[in-house]
Amino acid sequence: xxxKPSLFQTQAFRIVLxxxxxxxxxxxxxxxxxxxxxxxxxxxQTDQIIEAEITGxxxxxxxxxxxxxxxxxxxxxxxxxxxxxxxxxxxxxxxxGNLNSWPPLSGSLGETVEFDFERPVxxxxxxxxxxxxxxxxxxxxxxxxxxxxxxxxxxxxxFTTTLPWTVLLILLLGTAGGAxxxxxxxxxxxxxxxxxxxxxxGDLTRRIPLNGSGDEFDVLAENLNRMLDRIERLMKxxxxxxxxxxxxxxTPLNRLRNRLEESAARLSASGAQAGEIERAIAETxxxxxxxxALLLIAETDAGTTRAAMSTLDLVEVAADVVELYEPLAExxxxxxxxxxxxxxxxxxxxxxxxxxxxxxxxxAIKYTPAGGKVRxxxxxxxxxxxxxxxxxxxxxxxxxxSRVTERFVRLExxxxxxxxxxxxxxxxxxxxxxxxxxxxxDNVPTGLKAVLRxxxxxxxxxxxxxKSAAE
Length: 471
Fold this sequence. Notes:
This protein is an alpha+beta fold. It folds into three domains: 13-157, Beta-Lactamase (2-Layer Sandwich), CATH 3.30.450; 216-302, Orthogonal Bundle (Helix Hairpins), CATH 1.10.287; 306-470, 2-Layer Sandwich (Heat Shock Protein 90). Helices cover 54% and strands 18% of the residues. It contains eight helices and twelve strands. It has a five-stranded antiparallel sheet with strand order 2-1-5-4-3. A five-stranded mixed sheet has the order 7-9-10-12-11. The two termini are 29 Å apart.
């Protein structure tokens, strides 16, 4: 089962985060465009004012010469405003204007320049920013006409300082909002996942709770609950049919077997009729075994044997199975052994695990040639507990391992011994019942290794067991 995703892995948080990033980018682009367009407009307006001032002073010079320009500059500087003037010779000697000296400028004649100047404000000298143009008058005179744009500069600086903080605040608030939305959706999804896990474990009576909001999660929960009601009715009907089949078929089969045994007892042990009856009894036993295996697989898949869970030692279970199958192994001249191991304690159904291990051992002995070996081992690993059965038989091709656990599947090309094809299906069902997995892998140097891997949650080891088992 997959682990619960973190808040930052939820789809809701990712969607909100993407929208926050897009919104932050859009706001940044919009504010930057507004800032750029506003600054360009203000610069154009300032340049137009400067151009009009220069044109007027040029007219004064054309009609009245230098004295007319000096008088015009002095007249315009009588009123404190945003306009700045400096009239000087080519050596920058001051002639007239409201700037006491020629400011340091970078740029050629006719170009728009920006420069710093000092101006008294509330009785104190203050460094301010100006924007203007330098125009050459006939007679090697220079005229600087500018506008005080310091207030605009302060506004621009405030804007450029505020913009990053605005974007950062949008990201922080958006991320917090995404976390809240993601947490709410994660809580609703966690409820659905938790209920689904309980249903998978076999409790078909569980239903997904509603919070009464009528949102899409409530609609989804209602649809899932209706689906679960339908599945529960179908499973209940299937169990009723199974019970009926168990009552109608298994009992007559047992009676038939008993009558065959009685008939065999009345006949001569060496007679041909007695041999036929013995074969009929064997066929009947196989039918009863097949039927019992199907019932056990169905019960295991449905989780109806959950009440039989208890603490058990896998080494003891394996020892009992080895003792049971030692005669069969000796008869086939196969070496059957349980590898030494410390006690390995888990929480499980002893009968089901013993049946699954017996099926694995029976298959291993059946398909291992004379002189081969079958080894059983219970051990503790970093991920949990492993119960393995390794043989030296022909093994199973890797391409076929995914389908051999299906019911009635038999690989006749390599294994042609009698059987029903339900052995590994039952083992897989028992593994699913215990939240474990059945893994089929190559046994080095030859053969098949079947491993039942239990998670650490199934372990109920005594103090010191894990350490000793690992050693």
